[in-house]
Amino acid sequence: MSRETIESILQEKRLFSPPAEFAQNAHIKSLEQYQELYDRAAADPEEFWAQLAEKELHWFQKWDRVLDWQPPFAKWFVNGKINISYNCLDRHLTTWRKNKAAIIWEGEPGDSRTLTYAQLHREVCQMANVMKQLGVKKGDRVGIYMPMIPEAAIAMLACARIGAPHSVVFGGFSSEALKARLLDAQAKLVVTADGGWRKDQIVPLKDSVDEAIAHNGVPSVENILVVERTKQKIHMEPGRDHWWHDLQAGASADCPAEPMNSEDMLFILYTSGTTGKPKGVVHTTGGYNLYTHVTCKWAFDLKDTDVYWCTADVGWITGHSYIVYGPLSNGATSLMYEGAPRPSNPGCFWDVVEKYGVTIFYTAPTAIRAFIKMGEHHPKARNLSSLRILGTVGEPINPEAWMWYHKIIGGGRCPIVDTWWQTETGGFMITPLPGAIPTKPGSATLPFPGIIADIVDLEGNSVPTNRGGYLAIKYPWPSMMRTVYGDDDRFRRTYWEHIPPKDGQYFYFAGDGARKDSDGYFWIMGRVDDVMNIAGHRIGTMEVESALVSHPAVAEAAVVSRPDEVKGEDIFAFVTLEGSYQPSEKLKEELKQHVVKEIGTIARPGEIRFADALPKTRSGKIIRRFLRNLAAGQDLVGDISTMEDLSVLDKLREGT
Ligand code: WT7
Questions:
Q1: Predicted local confidence at residue 483, as pLDDT
Q2: If you take atom 24 of ligand 1, which residue's CA is the nearest one?
Q3: Is there an atom of ligand 1 within 6 Å of 538 CB?
Q4: Ligand 1 contacts CB of residue 419 (under 6 A)
Q5: Is the whole-model pTM more than 0.85?
Q6: Which run of H or of E encompasses 226?
C-alpha cells in the first residue's frame, strides 16, 4: 500500500450505519443479533455449525462427528454423505425455484443466455454423463480452462456430481502455467473452449491446451472436451478431442448425484506463495458447501428476489465460492459476465446492472479505481437504482475509492461489504453483515460468526489495539483448506509454523499484516510475505523471477512491487544480464513478453530495470526492502551496513 493510503486509513473516522429499513428486512438485523450469533458460535462452534448444517443443507446421511481436529488437519462432518451439486441443483427442483433463473449470462459481443434451475440441472447431468463416458471416475481430476460462459459452471458442477475433483485454471494463464497445473493435479480430462472473448479479442484457449500437452507433456490427459464459443478454426485431434455439442446430443439427462463423503476432495485451486511453484489448495465437500452457503446468505443478505452479480472469473476462488457454489446452493440468481471494462465500452458494467436489474454487485477495488478514472458520467448515464448491496474483495480498498463506490454507484443507500478472505479460507472470514454491522471506509470490520481472528506477534501474543501485527485464525472453520495437494509438509510449513503453536493453541498464518481498532474492527494492511497483489491478483515474486531467469539473456532477477494508482500494486523487475547481452528497450519488451508467455498477462512487469548487480547482504541474500524503496522512488529505509557493495545502490538508482 502507498504511504498516502496508509495515512488516510489511519485517519479514517467515518461510520456508516445500515439504513433502518434495510436492517429490518435483513437476515441478520442488528449488531446485537450479530453479537449474539458470534458469542454463541465462539462458545460452542461445533454445535453452531452442526445446527446450520442440518438446517441449510441436504445430507444423504448425517455425520457422526462434527469436527475431528488433529492440528493442522481438520475433518468436518465426519462420515456425513453429501453432494454439493445436489445442494446447488436437485433440491431446488421440487420447489417453485425449478423455473427460476439460476444463471443469467451476458457474453462480450452481446450474446446472452438464461438457464433456469431445471435447465442447468439438465445440462450438468448431461455433462456428467459425458465425463463418465470419457472414462472419468470418482476421484479422477479434471482440468477446466474456460472463458466466462455457463459451461464453465456446468463443468464444475458436473465434476462435483460424479465426485471428480476439478482444477480450474484461469483462462488468462499461459499454456506454460496451465501445463504446470495439469501436471501437478495429474488431470485425466481437460474441459476447454475453442476460444473466449476478452476485451474485444479472442483468447485461443484450445490452442493453449494443445501447446500445454504437446509432445506428451502431460501424459495423464486422455481426452479434451471442447465447448464451441468463438467458432474460430482450431485443431481437433481424432480420438482425443471431442466437441461438447456432439457428445451432449447423445447424452442422457439422468445422472443421480454421487453421495460423497463430507471430506472427499471437491477441488484443487492453485495459488501463489513465496516459492516459485504455485500451491494446489485442496478443498473438500461438506464443510465448504456449508460455509460458502451461509456466508453468501448472510454477508450478501441473499433473497429470492435478488439478481446477484460477482464480476470475478471462475478461475479464482471468488468465482468458485461466490459465483457458483454459494449462490446456487442458496437457490439464488447468479449473473455471469464474459466481458471486462475496456476503452471501447467503459460503461459496460453499468449497462449490465441496468439491463438485468442487478441488486447485489461484488467487484474488486482495482476495478472501482479504474471506473473512477473513466469518469462518473458513465454510471450516471445509467439507472442503477436496483442496487441494494455493494461488495469488494481482493485487496485493501482505499477510503477515497470506498466513498466513490458508496456515492456514485450505491447512490448513498447501499451498504458496502468489504470481504477479507483467501483461496485458502474458502469463504469470507472478516466481513460486514450489511444489516447489522456499521461500516468504516477501508475496514473489513468484524469476523464472521465462528471465526476466531486475532492480530498477533510471531510468538502468538495478541498485540495491543491499533498496533500492527500478523493476522491469524485461532480455531478451525468448515471451509478451511485441508492441505496443499500432494504436500502435507508444505501445508504445515506455510500456514502453521510461522507462529508456533503454544499451549495447544494453533495459529493459521494468513500472510497478511493488519491492525484492530478500539471498536475491534480489522484493518488489513497487505501481504507480509513475498506475494504481490497486482490488480487483486495474487502473484509470487519468485514466480516472476523464475520466469525471467528462464530467458537466456537473464543472469539474475529480483522482483518487487511498487504502489500503483489503479492496480494497487504493479510489478517492478531488476535484472542483471548475461555477459553477451546489452541492455535495450527491445530486450525489455522481449523480457516482459517472456513473462507473459511463462505465466500470463496478469504477470506482465510494469517496469524492468537493468542493473550491473543487485543489492545483497554479505551472506548473498537480495535486500528486497531497498529494491522496493527504489521502485517506489523513495529514499532507502533501514540499515545499509549489512550490504556487501554500497556502490551497487548508486548504480541501481541511475538505472537503465
Ligand atoms: C489475499 C488473498 C479472496 C478472494 C480474492 C483473493 C488480499 C483479499 C481482501 C480485502 C484487503 C484483501 C489479502 C489476502 N485480500 N481480500 N477485503 N481487504 N486485502 O484471493 O488470491 O487467495 O488472495 O488477497 O492479501 O491474503 P487470493
A1: 98
A2: 394
A3: yes
A4: yes
A5: yes
A6: strand 223-227
